[in-house]
Design a protein that fits this description.
Layout: E1 2-5, E2 10-14, E3 17-28, E4 31-32, E5 39-41, E6 46-61, E7 66-70, H1 77-87, E8 93-99, H2 105-118, E9 123-128, E10 140-146, E11 160-163, H3 173-187, E12 194-199, H4 206-219, E13 223-227, H5 234-239, E14 244-248, H6 259-273, E15 278-283, E16 288-290, H7 302-312, E17 318-321, E18 326-330, H8 338-348, E19 352-356, E20 363-368, E21 374-384, E22 389-394, E23 402-410, E24 416-419
Parallel strand pairs: 8-12, 8-13, 9-12, 13-14, 16-23, 18-19
Antiparallel strand pairs: 1-6, 2-6, 2-7, 3-4, 3-5, 3-6, 9-10, 10-11, 15-22, 17-18, 20-21, 20-23, 21-22, 23-24
């Protein structure tokens, strides 16, 4: 359908939708929309189309999509003011953007990145929002060099990525902090003038505040932008006395997303990064497994295996022992009690983790090449404990040297179905 919008208005498009500008001048967060070129709005996302001069647009709306015309600008005036000051800072500049869930962080990052690109600055963006990552798969921290204005950060391809394996930072703080610092060190060789870092929406409470301050310290931010809806960022911003800080408004045009909508967006992202995947087999002897009980030790000595079998009341189909723990894998049909496990712990004097064959199915994994370079993600189909091989569904074609287990489980349609610490070293 065709729709005419007057100058000075914003057309809000909630996906899934496809938009084409037939005439006029329309932009999205500072990126001009070329005439008669399709703009895809993902399901679960809202894009604000700012009409600079009267425009005619053609719209194709999918199920659940809608449009809404509003008589106000795309961005608050505080955004324009902050961007002008940020662009004027001595280069190189690293700007970290903070805010709660649905505060407008990603929209502001997009606007800021576009402004820097149009100012002819060599610009890059790091997306450290694990749960709603646009640059890189969910559960990762991804970097992309930006050469031209973008309508949606999802358009960008991650050029350098760190796998965390969780969509929430609360249980992976050190991984995120260390990964972000490592990633910034890697991208510095790109000779950037302007680096924008998006962060997650975890801001409430002392632990969240300490985490955010730790992120700033780890990357050596030049400036921090806080999108505050109340006083939730005050503890963080007050701690950053030696860093230039900006507090900007959360736009009224932001659409709060439900938990299901967020999971849907992650599903679309998993599909993007698993496109062209096929089943591959990796022998335990070919690759290293990172931060995992599986592959961390050696087979139990015959006597110790017999003792473990007696204590559990069943013989494991696979077991190994490391300095810190014992891993025992049982058949699917076998069961043990907490008392039996505790008896085994007391006997061996170390943690004993008991899992069942098949518990690993659907686990998200990260695959690395030489020198810890991230190659891509995959989904663990099964572990063949007899042949000591892992079957992984992944599009990665390069030689894999290391595999990292995440905590997210996906079904066959790449929808999240829960969390798992099946091989976790944190017992």
């Amino acid at each position: 359908m065709k729709h005419v919008v007057d100058a000075g208005k914003t057309l809000l498009v909630d996906g899934p939708a496809c938009v084409s500008v037939l005439s006029g001048n329309v932009s999205v967060l500072g990126a001009l929309l070329p005439l008669e070129k399709n703009l895809v709005v993902r399901e679960g996302k809202r894009l604000p189309l700012w009409v600079n001069e009267m425009a005619t647009v053609e719209l194709m709306l999918g199920e659940g999509a809608c449009i809404n015309e509003v008589a106000e600008g795309t961005v608050p005036s505080s955004w324009d003011e902050a961007v002008k000051e940020l662009l004027a800072l001595d280069k190189p500049v690293t700007v970290m953007v903070m805010g709660g869930v649905d505060s407008g962080k990603t929209s502001f990052c997009t606007f800021l990145v576009n402004s820097a690109v149009m100012a002819d600055l060599r610009t890059g963006v790091i997306d450290a929002d694990l749960g709603q990552s646009d640059v890189g798969p969910p559960s990762t921290v991804g970097f992309s060099l930006v050469n031209q204005p973008v309508k949606d950060l999802f358009e960008l391809e991650a050029q350098c990525t760190v796998f965390v394996g969780s969509t929430s930072p609360s249980g992976s703080i050190s991984k995120v902090v260390d990964g972000l610092a490592c990633l910034k060190d890697r991208v510095l060789v790109a000779g950037l003038d302007f680096l924008v870092i998006n962060t997650d929406g975890w801001v409430e409470g002392k632990e969240a505040s300490a985490y955010k301050v730790g992120l700033v310290d780890a990357v050596g931010s030049s400036a921090v932008v806080g999108i505050q809806q109340g006083n939730e960022l005050t503890p963080v911003l007050d701690s950053l006395r030696s860093i230039k800080t900006f507090v900007i408004d959360s736009p009224q045009l932001i659409q709060p997303r439900s938990r299901e909508k967020r999971k849907l967006l992650r599903k679309l992202s998993y599909k993007k990064y698993l496109k062209g995947a096929k089943m591959q087999s990796f022998s335990f002897s070919w690759i290293k497994v990172e931060d995992s009980l599986l592959g961390a030790g050696a087979p139990l000595h015959h006597k110790r295996l017999n003792a473990l079998t007696n204590l559990l009341g069943t013989r494991p189909i696979y077991s190994e022992e490391s300095i810190g723990a014992i891993l025992a894998v049982l058949k699917k049909s076998e069961k043990v009690t907490e008392t039996q496990i505790n008896d085994a712990i007391e006997h061996f004097g170390k943690p004993v983790k008991v899992i069942r064959e098949g518990d690993e199915q659907g686990l998200l994994v990260g695959l690395k090449g030489e020198e810890d370079t991230f190659l891509g993600i995959g989904v663990l189909h099964e572990v063949d404990y007899k042949r000591k091989a892992l079957k992984v569904y992944t599009p990665v074609v390069e030689k894999v040297y290391k595999l990292c287990f995440g905590q997210i489980k996906l079904n066959k349609n790449f929808r999240e179905i829960g969390l798992s610490t099946v091989y976790s070293v944190n017992l």
